[in-house]
Structure formats: C-alpha cells, structure tokens
Amino acid sequence: MSYFKIYPRKMMVDAAVEHTHSARLFFHLEQYGRVYHNQVCPVEIRPDPVANDRWQMVILQSDIPLQEFDRFMTSLNAYLFRVLNYVPSGPRPETPLLPEEYFFQPVFFDAIDGNIQSLSAPDPVDREV
Fold it and tell me: Cα separations (Å) of 46 from 61, 79, 82, 115?
C-alpha cells in the first residue's frame, strides 16, 4: 500500500492572456488510506522556456506542503504534454465565457513509483465508503 496517491480528474482552462492560460486542476488525494475528494489547485499553463514547442503547468498556490506534490506535478507535466501531446485551447468560440474542460483518463500518481499510471481496476476513491 502506498502512503500517497493523487488521482487527477480534470482541468478547466481559461482563455490565454499573453500566451499563458489560467486553469484549475481538480484531483482526489489519498494519504495513508484517507481520501480527500475534489481538491482544486490553481495553475498556469505556459510555454515551456526550455522546449519552445511544448507547454508546462505551474502551480500558483497549493495547500499541500508535500514534496511528493511537486513530484506529482513534474510527472503530470511529462504525461500531459509529452505522452498525450495536450495543447491548451481555452474556451471554444461558440462558448467564449466557458472554460475548456479537459478530463483525464483513469490514472493516478503513486509516490512510491513517482509516475503517472493507468488504473486497471476500478478507482479506489470512487468506491462507496
């Protein structure tokens, strides 16, 4: 059993301002078997300064003072922008006031492995308690 897992759920991405998208990352957090549902973290999605053709997600503010959360964000950036090749688009032209909603496949971050992994069984945080 891992002591720390994060289950990313979705992002809500606003229109770009000077090539930067404000967004909110929604996730469930499991720590030592206790699940904290529907956590939200404000982030920005910016062009990656190292790789001009890629993006990076940067935490703006977080209540989670764990080193593992930084590792999660590093893994999520690699998964989202290198594996999935996600490119933020912001609101659709027909609904300019509504943010883009990006839903993650059933995946999780395990602090022991340090990687984003696919859920092969039903998501443990969606079980009835």
Answer: 16, 16, 14, 22
- For the stretch 47-83, pLDDT in tens is 998 887 899 999 988 777 677 888 999 999 999 999 9
* CA 129, chain centre distance (Å): 24
d(C-alpha 94, C-alpha 110), whole Å: 38
Give CA–CA dist 6/107, Å, rounded.
9
Q: Shortest CA distance to 43 belongs to which of 26, 23, 68, 62? A: 23
Please tell me the predicted confidence (pLDDT) of residue 122.
55
pLDDT at 3: 82
pLDDT of residue 128: 45
Distance CA 21, CA 48 (A): 13
Quick one: CA dihedral 67, 109, 55, 94, positive or negative? negative
